[in-house]
Write a structure and sequence with these properties.
Elements lengths: L6 E7 L6 E7 L6 H12 L2 E4 L13 E7 L6 E7 L1 H7 L10
Antiparallel strand pairs: 1-2, 3-4, 4-5
Length: 101
């Protein structure tokens, strides 16, 4: 039986060039999307979108999409969340953008 350290996957996208890659960070070095977002925002001056380790589970509050980054309006780190968005994206099988069914 092998034990592996769980990781948080991060998709890094450079919108100017279209370059992308997936980085993995060990759980323990960073404990969730806000902790990792603080690190990435200060390192890359980026806007970060993520979910927690329990996303998709039955626990209340775990299905929130978290958006975080450094504000351009005032010097500070901002955190916003949208409830139920992760549950919707996991459970919806088919949706159309801009069209009514």
């Amino acid at each position: 039986m092998s034990t592996s350290n769980p990781t948080i996957k991060v998709l890094m996208i450079d919108a100017a060039s279209g370059f992308y890659k997936v980085n993995r960070y060990n759980v323990g070095d960073f404990f969730g999307p806000v902790d990792l977002g603080i690190h990435l925002s200060h390192k890359y001056n980026s806007l970060n979108v993520g979910v927690g380790l329990l996303a998709g589970s039955i626990f209340p509050g775990s299905n929130r999409l978290i958006v975080k980054g450094i504000s351009t309006c005032w010097p500070g780190f901002c955190i916003n969340s949208m409830g139920g968005l992760v549950w919707f994206s996991i459970t919806s099988q088919h949706y159309t953008y801009g069209k009514s069914n």
